Amino acid sequence: MSEMTKSPTHYRLLATFKAIGPYLREQECTKERFMFDCLASCVDDSKSPEEREFWGWWLTLATVDGGFVAKYHKGRYTLAGTWSEEPITAKAQEEVVKTQVKFHEKLLAALQPFELEVTIDQESQEFV
After folding, report:
1. Which CATH number goes with the domain that contains 57?
2. Within 13 Å of residue 47, how many CA atoms lie on the same side as its CB?
3. Domain-embedded: residue 2
4. Could you report the per-residue pLDDT of 11-53, keeping only the tens digit for each?
5. Out of 31, 92, 100, 104, which could bridge 55 as a Cys pair, Cβ 3.0 to 4.6 Å?
């Protein structure tokens, strides 16, 4: 495999991450760090859409030689548009974990052609 393929550009990585699905938060990405998140389960779906908060996860993917270090977090996406790391209700836990596992599988598959590895940060919240 060519050196260019093994060391993809920032823009090639952005395109690869966008192809995974709606998880990438491009405006929060830099050349050294990529941000992803997922609103997996509504906190209270009886509220009107503009008043809803969500349980979910977010990921900071930091570049290192040979790949990335992934740091996952779980919590609530607030009305203010920010994440709050807090325990997820038992009712929402299954959906949050399911979406996180599926995303991580897609992430690994997307990076395989570049021969880049993803290691989980020791401070990352468990999801499997």
Report:
1. 3.30.310.230
2. 10
3. no
4. 999 999 999 999 999 999 999 999 999 999 999 999 999 999 9
5. 92
Alpha carbon 77 to its chain's center = 14
Q: Which domain holds residue 15?
A: 8-118
- What is the residue whose two structure tokens read 């192809």? 19
Domain count, the chain: 1
Question: Is 23 strand, coil or helix?
Answer: coil
* Residue 36: strand pairing partners: 24, 59
DSSP 40-88: EEES-TTS-GGG--EEEEEEEEEEETTEEEEEEEEEEE-TTS-EEE-PP
3 assigned to some structural domain: no
Residue 107 within any structural domain of the chain:
yes
117-120/54-64 β-pairing:
unpaired
pLDDT tens digit string along 67-105?
A: 999 999 999 999 999 999 999 999 999 999 999 999 999
Q: Provide the pairing of β-strand 67-77 with 83-85.
A: antiparallel
